[in-house]
Automatic annotation (TrEMBL), chains A, B:
Catalytic-site annotation from UniProt: E294 (5-glutamyl coenzyme a thioester intermediate)
InterPro entries: AcetylCoA_hyd_C, AcetylCoA_hyd_C_sf, ActCoA_hydro, ActCoA_hydro_N, NagB/RpiA_transferase-like, Succinate_CoA_transferase
Lineage, highest ranks first: Bacteria, Pseudomonadati, Pseudomonadota, Gammaproteobacteria, Lysobacterales
Keyword Metal-binding among record annotations: no
Family, similarity comment: Belongs to the acetyl-CoA hydrolase/transferase family.
Binding sites annotated in the UniProt record for CoA: I364, N384, G388, K408
BP GO annotations: acetate metabolic process; acetyl-CoA metabolic process
Organism per entry: Stenotrophomonas terrae
Keyword RNA-binding included in the entry's annotation: no
Protein name according to UniProt: Acetyl-CoA hydrolase
Any one GO molecular-function label of the UniProt entry: acetyl-CoA hydrolase activity
Domain Acetyl-CoA hydrolase/transferase C-terminal: 330-469
Length: 504, 504
């Protein structure tokens, strides 16, 4: 393997194997790694660390770390470390089945926070010191500055704060990604903060590389491995209908003069439904769209390629294998239209509010009054985490939540009397869309919201049950502002636990 | 009564009685009035309107309006109109007993939203047109510009958007209040928004008066009446202890280097406990404090007078009669140290995050995992509303919630297994303080938060009951990430409804 991606001679001397690099990490350390939704995470050191920890455990010794990242990673990182019980504490987001299992068994402590809060809370000292940073980059320049790879996440913060740094240089990443990033070094701690000078989603306000004190770099590891590259499912009928209702609504808002003809910068969560929305936008007749979001997935590349989307700002990618090939093949095209930022910028409340983003996120369930549960199955089991959905929901122009009206073959209703966990409050949620229709909750008092949600979004199989609850609540509730029957409010969830269905 | 406060000759000609002014308001109108926490609300027209509506109702005719303000007002506005069933919809905040009663009977629709969202959501068109604005000012200048009185709230937005405007000129307000206000006209709708150029809580970024198109002014009414001026209760032992724990914590954070020696700009909710905290700060030894808050109450004036607080930014006042006399007597002193802003600025997420405010707000209840209910008694009855607490909780440096550990003589625990309504999620709440102690939830996973809240904050009468629930939930919950027993999670609230106490 060539070392042409490592141009700083000081750092060429520190190239070691993944195993040698992993040996720098000690039990009990707080380790901060790169990675955001399966892009730009270290490919080799976490696997080597997992092997080392497994060996130590086999010898009867304890070895766990506290693990921070940008967001979710991949089986080679979260999965490998979770499987060997290497993680004592995980922050701020994950989607790994092995980690999830341990979290829900009470064996792995998980702290699920807004992605815009991560960097600042670590800077504030709320999470103690960072011992080691493990960061994937695409190259090291002559002066020791780092060319990021396919995610930025919290890498700037990890590199600034970590006592020692391990760099992975991944030659699988396209060399021409250089120049795509915009790393803003103008953040500070209060009382020294200044306005962030970003006015359009494609403004460049920073530099293309990450700074790091070379004296802190204890190891450089060369890798050549792909990002996670999960395929998306083909767009199903439910997703197509949800996308249709949402796009019809957005066009209606344009017609009413409440949105510009090219909308406002779009934020899109990751998954099959958001991907269907992006596909729907391609055929919508809308033009000149922009995006200020966390993650670019397949549909966003298509919109850029077809010219429907002018540009996009993000902090990471979630691409299928095919889309990844397309991205790498036409990197020079995409480099002109995509700007990658730190997640403190991509999700910053100041910027989301200024730009007036349109948030589009999935959900687990919503209740009659518009409270949304994004994180907990039946109130106690974590699914993934809140991620950046709260940053966009609270601060954007519009917050929309998209979900099929039922799950698990109809045994779970996504519309419930009371959500079993609240991630987005009634004060924050504007629009709910299911394959049944769209509920516009803007400017409505609680009982009028309930009518919208039941009539427009609930599955017919659950509509009578919801009406029955709501009617009796309106009659018998302690207060009639937000009517509830407390002994029944969470009974649908308990019924599912007990019987396998929410149906009465 | 002299007209020396009305210097624009065009508007002197429009001086009419309150009854004549109220006659401009038609049934079904959306009426936007001034007023924020009992300061700066119109004193005469709402009373005249209430009388007119009562007469119309007595004649068997319908007459209701939709009513928007800055925040809560006073008996002469919310109370008078609620009593005669004049309000069909109320937004965004109220604290009036007559309005509350009707809301909880299901007779008055109330929309309870973040105070930072109000102006922009009306600008976005989410609430339709504003027919009439009724705004109290302290004077009208020669050029027709308006000198605000003791609150600014949403007055700029109401004056800009209303089709017709009624001005009340209140000579009870000190003439020397002129110059205290800072009205920022730089806001815009996306995609035209720019950074707000405020870096310190005492920066001036606007003008001292409100603009209005004089052609829209249909009536000017002269008044001479006091703001609400509710007295505060003497500081009780619980409040003193809560204040003590919070201040001890803040000094600890200074000692640890996580806060500057003069802290960061303080936001303080309204009430007896926040007032006790302010009194505690006076004796804390801390100096050079600053405030970026919604409301200035008695304790804040004391801190300014004693020099502990350098300056304060607000959008309204909540003063006792004595404090109001002090304020009027020494208006020239306070005018140099207090800046009054529109509530879109006082509560703006961009600014709250940039300044790193320390939020201090009351609550109704908190649960084991740090979810806070600020609005609903037993899940369905509105108390007041979320007000600006969410703006500061989500975006500030620290969010603290303060409450006695019990209410109603011990029959209600403020620490419950699951809150009956969520206004501030587990992702947003940092610090809980009761007279029992302080729970620091920063950087903790859910079960560790539960231990902190039970051990440090719960009343001893409820601690065993909470431990029993938590222990069984940790054993039997469907998931162990956020353990809950759904059939019991809200049983404390139902027990209170059924038996008058949460005690088992």
């Amino acid at each position: 393997m060539s070392v042409e991606r490592i141009l700083d001679p000081r750092l060429r001397d520190r190239v070691v194997s993944a195993e040698q690099a992993a040996a720098f990490i000690q039990p009990g350390e707080t380790v901060a790694m790169s990675g955001f939704t399966g892009s730009g995470y270290p490919k080799a050191v976490p696997l080597a660390l997992a092997q080392r920890i497994e060996d130590v455990h086999a010898a009867g010794q304890p070895f766990q770390i506290k693990l921070m990242t940008g967001a979710s990673t991949a089986p080679e990182l979260d999965g490998a470390l979770a499987k060997v019980d290497a993680i004592a504490m995980r922050m701020p987001f994950q989607t790994d089945p092995d980690a999830r299992k341990r979290i829900n068994e009470g064996k792995l402590d998980y702290i699920d926070i807004h992605l815009s809060h991560v960097a600042q809370h670590v800077w504030f000292g709320f999470y103690g010191d960072i011992d080691t940073a493990v960061i994937e980059v695409s190259a090291i320049r002559e002066d020791g500055s780092l060319v990021p790879s396919t995610s930025v996440g919290n890498n700037k913060t990890w590199l600034d704060l970590a006592k020692k740094v391990i760099i992975e240089v991944n030659e699988w990443q396209p060399a021409d990604i250089e120049g795509m990033h915009d790393i803003y070094y103008g953040t500070a701690l209060p009382p020294h903060r200044k306005p962030i000078p970003l006015i359009h989603a494609n403004d460049r306000i920073g530099q293309t590389t990450l700074n790091v004190d070379p004296d802190k770099i204890v190891a450089v590891v060369r890798t050549n491995g792909p990002d996670r590259n999960s395929p998306f499912k083909p767009i199903d009928e439910d997703s197509r209908q949800i996308a249709g209702y949402l796009i019809e609504f957005l066009k209606h808002e344009v017609a009413k003069g409440r949105l510009p003809a090219n909308l406002l910068p779009l934020q899109s969560g990751v998954g099959n439904i958001p991907n269907a929305v992006l596909a729907g936008l391609a055929e919508s007749g809308l033009r000149g769209l922009t995006s200020f979001t966390e993650v670019i997935q397949d549909g966003m590349l298509d919109l850029l390629k077809s010219g429907v989307l002018d540009y996009a700002s993000c902090t990471g990618f979630a691409l299928s294998p095919e889309a990844n090939e397309e991205f790498k093949r036409n990197i020079k095209f995409y480099r002109e239209r995509i700007i990658m930022r730190t997640q403190e910028i991509s999700n910053h409340p100041e910027l989301v509010r200024r730009l007036g983003c349109i948030g589009m996120n999935g959900m687990i369930e919503v209740d009659l009054y518009g409270n949304v549960n994004s994180t907990h199955v039946m109130g106690s089991r974590i699914m993934n985490g809140i991620g950046g959905s709260g940053d966009f929901t609270r601060n954007g122009f519009l917050s929309t939540f998209l979900s099929p009206s039922t799950a698990k073959g109809g045994s779970i209703s996504a519309i419930v009397p009371m959500v079993s966990h609240v991630d987005h409050t009634e004060h924050d949620v504007s629009i709910i869309v299911t394959e049944q229709g769209l509920a516009d909750l803007r400017g409505l008092p609680p009982r009028a919201r309930a009518r919208q949600v039941i009539d427009n979004c609930a599955h017919p199989d659950y509509r009578d049950q919801l009406n029955d609850y709501f009617d009796r609540a309106c009659r018998d509730s302690y207060g009639k502002h937000t009517p509830h029957l407390l002994p029944e409010a969470l009974s649908w969830h308990q019924r599912y636990i007990d019987t396998g269905t929410m149906k009465a």
